[in-house]
Design brief:
elongated, alpha+beta, six-stranded antiparallel sheet
């Protein structure tokens, strides 16, 4: 057998590798080689959409869905609102800020903007919480059927309101604020000698007096003083101020002796004498 025989023991020439062929190639016919595929035309590549554009099938929403004319209108409206908010914040800042050059020059414009709808105060945050209890008391001069005038004892109207509020889930605005605000109104419009300051002083006196007459009539002060029918001729109001006791852990020492502020007697007009204006 020469070297070119095809037997299993035949020797291979130097140009043939002595390694066995892979299984995939072993016994594969020559015709099974991969056919040549001619390259076709390149696939088109989608170009990125320009910013702000929408696919044809997707609807536009929001401001973009409006026509250009309406978009301009919305932009102008937003600009006006933004300017108004900035002006309001600036005016509020100048109102609550300490006195400065701007408020001294334009204080009236700031006040005209703030009052009365946007009035600012610190009561919500209470930097100086109340440390006193102020109760409003009243007594009356009542003329009975026999023509004699009797003076009633002091009625603590604030204590009555407190008892009505205590344990009440829905106390009325009148019980909570009417008497307190009336007294604050009077104090703010009168000096230390109980003399009215300005035109609002006399208005505060009338307001407080009418509240007193109404409360006395409701509480039956006239019947208690005269034993039946009678007429309130005059009333006198006073405030009782006492300090709130400090907590047990505090070393602060305060006087617990109450102080009083008595107002002069006020004569009650006839149209108010029987429980207020009819």
């Amino acid at each position: 057998m020469d070297a070119y025989d095809e037997g299993s023991n035949a020797r291979h020439g130097p140009d043939v590798s002595s390694r066995p062929a892979p299984p995939a190639q072993r016994g594969a016919p020559a015709e099974s080689a991969a056919p040549d595929v001619s390259p076709g035309p390149p696939e088109p590549v989608a170009s990125p959409a320009p910013p702000g554009s929408y696919p044809p099938g997707e609807p536009r929403t929001g401001i973009a869905a409006l026509s250009p004319r309406y978009q301009v209108g919305v932009a102008l409206a937003l600009a006006v609102v933004a300017i108004g908010v900035c002006v309001h914040i600036g005016m509020t800042f100048l109102h609550v800020a300490p006195p400065n050059t701007v408020t001294r020059a334009h204080g009236k414009a700031v006040d005209d903007w703030i009052y009365p709808e946007f009035e600012q105060n610190w009561k919500l945050f209470a930097p100086n919480p109340l440390q006193q209890n102020i109760s409003i008391q009243v007594r009356a001069g009542v003329r009975g059927p026999d023509g004699m005038t009797l003076t009633t004892g002091w009625y603590d109207l604030s204590a009555e309101d407190g008892r009505a509020i205590d344990g009440n889930l829905l106390p009325s605005h009148t019980q909570q604020n009417e008497l307190r605000r009336a007294w604050d109104f009077f104090v703010a419009t009168h000096d230390g000698e109980n003399r009215p300051v300005g035109l609002r002083g006399s208005l505060s006196e009338s307001y407080l007096r009418r509240i007193m007459v109404l409360r006395l009539d409701r509480d039956g002060a006239v019947r208690a003083a005269t034993g039946g029918s009678g007429v309130i001729e005059r009333v006198q109001v006073r405030s009782r101020t006492s300090n709130v006791p400090p907590p047990e852990w505090s070393r602060e020492k305060v006087s617990m002796t109450p102080s009083y502020r008595e107002l002069p007697w006020w004569r009650v007009p006839q149209d108010e004498a029987r429980g207020g204006v009819r």
